[in-house]
UniProtKB/TrEMBL annotation:
It comes from the Bacteria. Keywords: Membrane, Transmembrane, Transmembrane helix. The chain crosses the membrane at residues 53-73, 79-100, 107-129, 141-161. This is Uncharacterized protein.
């Protein structure tokens, strides 16, 4: 038996769901890595932690790799998200963001990510685009709007937070 047959034998969910959860290397580079970069950027902005670009790139690679391998685990649907959130909070705490800020920043940005995915699904549905993607490149290209939505949410949050700080300074 090869590794895939063993994973299929002990997997708790049907084959179609397993195919959705597993990432290919193309999806890793075209979707997971940019998403992790925006995600880490958002966590740093929400937590008001200074960052440099090299640190963001390094943390994006680490988070992408952990997410990639967690999604290959033969676990129930949804458990991989909880594991990824816990790992993200841990990584952010290790890099110097206080644990409380790490928790709420991670959860808030994860909520923004979920919201952006929801808006992307609505957009794809309105445009009558088939959401059953067999080609990983097509799947990644159709996921770009959700990354743009996520970046917009983070920029709006950053603007609102700076505006709030400016108002406090004036008072």
């Amino acid at each position: 038996m090869n590794q895939n047959e063993i994973l299929n034998l002990y997997s708790p969910y049907p084959k179609g769901v397993r195919r959705i959860l597993k990432l290919t290397w193309i999806e890793f580079f075209l979707r997971n890595l940019p998403e992790a970069f925006i995600y880490i950027l958002g966590i740093h902005i929400v937590s008001r932690k200074y960052f440099n670009i090299l640190r963001l790139i390094f943390l994006s690679i680490v988070l992408s790799l952990t997410s990639f391998f967690v999604r290959w685990l033969p676990i129930y649907l949804g458990v991989h998200m909880i594991i990824n959130i816990i790992l993200t909070i841990s990584i952010m705490a290790i890099t110097g963001i206080p644990i409380i800020k790490s928790i709420y920043s991670t959860l808030l940005v994860y909520f923004m990510l979920s919201l952006s995915e929801f808006f992307n699904l609505i957009l794809l549905n309105l445009l009558n685009i088939n959401m059953e993607f067999s080609n990983p490149v097509t799947k990644c290209l159709l996921g770009i709007p959700s990354l743009i939505f996520l970046l917009l949410f983070i920029m709006i949050f950053n603007y609102a937070f700076k505006r709030k700080e400016d108002i406090k300074k004036c008072l």
